[in-house]
Design brief:
Blueprint (H helix, E strand, L loop, with lengths): L21 H28 L4 H11 L2 H30 L5 H14 L4 H16 L3 H29 L11 H19 L16 H5 L2 H28 L6 H15 L7 H10 L4 H36 L2
Length: 328
Amino acid sequence: MTAPADRQAPDAAPTARPRAPLWQRALPWLITIACFGYLYSRVDAQAARQGQTAAAFLLAVFSRVSWGKWLALMVPYSALFFLIDSVVVWRVVNWFNTRIRYVDILPIRGSTYILSIINEQVGKGAMALYLNRRDGVPGWQVGSSMLFIMFCEFLYLLSWALIGVLVGWDDFPPVFHSIPWIALGVALFCVVWIAYFRGAIAPSSTLRDRQILHAFRQAAPWQYGVIILLRSPALLSAVVVYTLALHLFGVEVGYLEMLGYLPVIFFGAATPGPMRSVAILMWVTLFPGHAAEMTAFGLVQHNFFIFFNAAIGLLFLRRANRDVLGRR
């Protein structure tokens, strides 16, 4: 598909935003402190029942893990995720922004993983800047494509959470039984959302004409489904990898249970904050009888993933800098 005709001039990049207020910058750190405070209290309580300190109990958990087997799971999974993630970005950019080869997307997506250490959405913002500098794509339009990807990520996680809960209904805590109702509400919202951007609702509205909504204005309903399908192998492989990895930490869980749990936990991992603290907290909440094991598991799973992806990004950083600085 060729790039849409309503592209702006190449220099139409987003203007710099004022610095966020102090409370907004401090909020992720406050969330992290609160999460780790709660985690410590749970681990300490479990350790006390065994007559140990929290630190000694956690070290014992780490010592029992076969780290060679764990790395054999995590390294291929992280590499596979990078390739699938890049396919999604490549497909969306080619639909809504400009023609670009898949091999040229790899340096873009890889290098932005470095910024994703702070927050995944910061990395997506960096992709918008990258494509604006490299290919002259209007910044707001690329930002719109990143919003489209984020929107589809939410739909794909919710879709698989729904499947997991419906298949293994009796194995999930009662709070998960609300997921079908949430999915129904989101489905109705999507019908209205797509109808609005196709002009079937409020045809005189000018909101849809803004450049930050460019991708939604161009997107056909089937393109949402394609992105969900392209993303799905990453989640299904994560279900297998996380289930086997959790067994290495001494906690038994089935694949269907993990299919329901993992999308919800990935929602938590997208919450701004260092160390993916919300995701770690959710593991402990879902497995309350294994506070130490789940704290250790969540800590190494999520942080290895983001730091290994950042290491992949370092391999592409020189190429990314050359593309940006050489084509400005």
